[in-house]
Amino acid sequence: MLQVCPNGSRSRVECDRLPLTVTELAAEVRSAVRAGAEDVHLHPKGPAGRDTLEPEHVAAAVAAVRAAVPGVRIGVTTGAWAAPDPERRAAHVRAWTVLPDHASVNWHEDGADLVADALLARGVGIEVGIFSGTDAARRFLAWPRAHRALRVLAEITETDPAAALVGAEALLDTLRAGTDLPVLLHGEDGSAWPVLAMAAARGLDTRIGLEDVLHLPDGSPARDNAELVGKARKLIDAQSGGRPLA
């Protein structure tokens, strides 16, 4: 499965092509799905362009994107930077009026279990964010409801390609020893493309988009998410011998 992450917590200062409004998100995701994306991870934004978990903004983003790509599963972030207090994050989830199909929970953040329990109670799938270089894997594997998660996001934070591949190997070993949940492996910035190739070679789910990287493998700036997805689709198909990822 190839997921598109169209915006992330970036701003227009970093990328003047970043989709922020619900109209921009819907258009970007529609083009990315046409280019080969099969799932969506987006960051709803408030009026100032910053990430938010507030129900009205989550509802607007999810509804707009779902209308643009009916039948495609849509997820959102629950990152602590959007609402630092975990009780507040969980309260936002309980107040959502339009539910995404899944939401990511970063397990190195305080209160991850509170947010995850709120998502489970609403019937929203949990993407478990495990950042390399943190104790998130240990903390998640000790959670009594770990088996109820949708998948693990193995998020490689090292941006040096060589270090990222070493970190990815170590994290995958830890996860294999502790869970049989599906794994989505991805890197960021300088490691995005090498880690994507690693995921494809191993038959793992992966993702690409302006959240993770602003450049194509040759270093040239990506025009948009669709261009990133199209390039990723070709690389995945080449690595997997033309077989779709599980």
Offer a few descriptive terms.
about 250 residues, 8-stranded parallel β-sheet, alpha/beta, TIM Barrel, about 15% strand, single chain, about 40% helix, 8 strands
Describe the structure.
The chain contains eight helices and eight strands. It is α/β, with parallel strands linked by helices and about 250 residues long. The chain has one domain (about 1-240): Aldolase class I (TIM Barrel). An eight-stranded parallel sheet has the order 7-6-5-4-3-2-1-8. Helix 1 packs parallel to helix 2 and helix 3 packs parallel to helix 4 (about 110-120). The model has no long low-confidence stretch (mean pLDDT about 95).
Protein topology:
Layout: E1 2-4, H1 22-35, E2 39-42, H2 55-68, E3 73-77, H3 86-95, E4 102-106, H4 112-122, E5 125-131, H5 136-141, E6 151-155, H6 161-178, E7 183-186, H7 192-201, E8 206-208, H8 225-239
Parallel strand pairs: 1-2, 1-8, 2-3, 3-4, 4-5, 5-6, 6-7
